[in-house]
């Protein structure tokens, strides 16, 4: 039986990963380390309460003793590092915590793993470390000359995508911190032979995403007849992937990826933000029959500083080496996601009470 130590497993992707892994594999144990920041929520894991394949540890990846103790107690075969501050707008308002958690937290985790896994002969046994990275480290792409109405490239010959060889060029404090973390992971591999691999994924969407990110924020606002704040002209493009497809990629790379390598993950689902917002309005209106949910709610607001124009991944390497492919088409995933938010009003109420209201006022009032 293999043991996975997952950090950030009470957040959006981390909790989906824990649920995905326990669904897919009978013979594993997951030790879930999470500091439970505003983004961590044990309600995401309610469906596996009582499943003794899952152990939750309330701890911070920056805490050397807590991480060393966890590694000594549970002896994980694999460590998967999801834990991070993850929202670009928060990083613009308060960059320091992004350096602390994303960079120093990763360095601490690497040090603790290195010490725990050292076999005394210059090796690390069969242990493996996976760093969960992002496409945002590559910076930004230009909007192609010919685009479809949804914002995706219209020319089948179009080749301007992020590849693993694309130079790192982060713009936001968030992406700078994630780039820095990736470089430490690479340095530990190159210097110490540390058994690490990095995935870089495009924007995820799905259940349990905190409503500070585009898709859940727009669903939540539409349901409450609040304005839908579209940054700038709304023509920025993101490459959307249903969260379970990202979990599948991490599962495959954790065990099968070549050490020291980077794997880009994305499903060629590029869409302009304004198109996403209009899809959400149409679907919410259809399901609820509520005529007040209409495009009149859209409000173009001041653009995000340093706003990357377009992300688009080339996931050729992971497909060719590991046979990974995305299973959920965007049109299906977005409807599933909207319905999940409609079906889980209690979850939404809990995460949007209290400090969320202060956050929302700070970010959007008078914007
Ligand atoms: P999230 O903000 O929803 O969750 C982050 C989790 O980490 C939370 O549970 C939080 O409590 C925990 N955490 C934060 N600081 C911690 C600390 N110091 N110690 C322990 N736990 C801590 O983020 P997410 O969207 O699930 O993203 C997870 C990872 O995937 C991040 O590394 C992010 O950079 C990466 N990623 C996200 C996306 C995306 O679209 N959301 C895309 C590509 C990569
Ligand atoms: P977000 O979900 O924050 O992800 P990221 O910035 O990491 O890609 O934002 C996705 C896109 O949506 C991005 O171009 C910014 C835009 N956006 C809005 O237009 N309005 C909003 O209220 C938010 C949160 C995002």
What does the model show?
The protein contains twelve helices and 13 strands. With 367 residues, it is α/β, with parallel strands linked by helices. It has one domain (2-209, 241-271, 311-330): Rossmann fold (3-Layer(aba) Sandwich), CATH 3.40.50.720. Helix 2 runs parallel beside helix 4, helix 6 runs parallel beside helix 8 (273-288) and helix 8 (273-288) packs across helix 10. The protein is globular. The mean pLDDT is 97. The site of nicotinamide-adenine-dinucleotide has 29 residues, from helix 1, helix 4 and strand 5.
How would you summarize this macromolecular structure in one to three sentences?
The chain has 367 residues and is α/β, with parallel strands linked by helices. The chain has twelve helices and 13 strands.
- Contiguous runs where pLDDT drops below 50 for at least 5 residues: none
Beta-strand proportion: 15-25%
CATH level-3 fold name: Rossmann fold
**What is the strand tally?**
13
Can you tell me the CATH superfamily? NAD(P)-binding Rossmann-like Domain
The CATH class is Alpha Beta
Average residue-wise pLDDT: 97
Number of individual domains: 1
Order of helices and strands: EHEEHEHHEHEEHEEEHEEHEHHHH
Q: Specify the helix fraction band.
A: 40-55%
> What global shape is seen?
globular
- Class derived from helix and strand content: alpha/beta
Largest sheet composition: 7 strands, parallel
Strand order of the largest sheet: 3-2-1-4-5-6-11
């Amino acid at each position: 039986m293999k043991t996975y130590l997952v950090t950030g497993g009470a957040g959006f992707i981390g909790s989906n990963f824990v649920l995905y892994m326990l669904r897919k594999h009978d013979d594993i144990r997951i030790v879930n380390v999470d500091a439970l920041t505003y983004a961590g929520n044990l309600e995401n894991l309610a469906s596996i309460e009582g499943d003794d394949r899952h152990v939750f540890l309330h701890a911070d990846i920056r805490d050397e003793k807590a991480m060393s103790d966890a590694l000594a107690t549970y002896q994980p075969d694999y460590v998967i590092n999801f834990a991070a501050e993850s929202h670009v707008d928060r990083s613009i308002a308060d960059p320091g915590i992004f350096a602390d958690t994303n960079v120093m937290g990763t360095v601490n985790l690497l040090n603790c793993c290195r010490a725990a896994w050292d076999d005394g002969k210059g090796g690390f046994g069969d242990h493996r470390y996976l760093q969960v990275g992002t496409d945002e480290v590559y910076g930004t792409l230009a909007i192609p000359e010919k685009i479809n109405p949804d914002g995706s490239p219209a020319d089948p010959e179009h080749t301007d995508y992020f590849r693993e060889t694309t130079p790192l060029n982060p713009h936001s404090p968030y992406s700078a911190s994630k780039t820095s973390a990736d470089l430490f992971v690479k340095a530990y591999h190159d210097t110490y032979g540390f058994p690490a691999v990095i995935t870089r994924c495009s924007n995820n969407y799905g259940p349990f995403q905190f409503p500070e990110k585009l898709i859940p924020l727009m669903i939540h606002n539409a349901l409450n007849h609040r304005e839908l704040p579209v940054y700038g002209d709304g023509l920025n493009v993101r490459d959307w992937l249903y969260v379970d497809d990202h979990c599948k990629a991490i599962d495959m790379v954790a065990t099968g990826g070549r050490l020291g390598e980077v794997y880009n993950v994305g499903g060629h689902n590029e869409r302009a933000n304004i198109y996403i917002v209009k899809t959400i309005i149409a679907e919410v209106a259809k399901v609820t029959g509520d005529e007040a949910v209409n495009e009149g709610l859209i409000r173009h607001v001041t653009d995000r500083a340093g706003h990357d124009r377009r992300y688009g991944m080339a996931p050729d390497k992971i497909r060719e080496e590991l046979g990974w492919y995305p299973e959920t088409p965007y049109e299906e995933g977005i409807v599933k996601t909207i319905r999940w938010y409609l079906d889980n009003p209690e979850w939404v109420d809990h995460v949007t009470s209290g400090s969320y209201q202060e956050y929302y006022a700070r970010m959007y009032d008078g914007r």
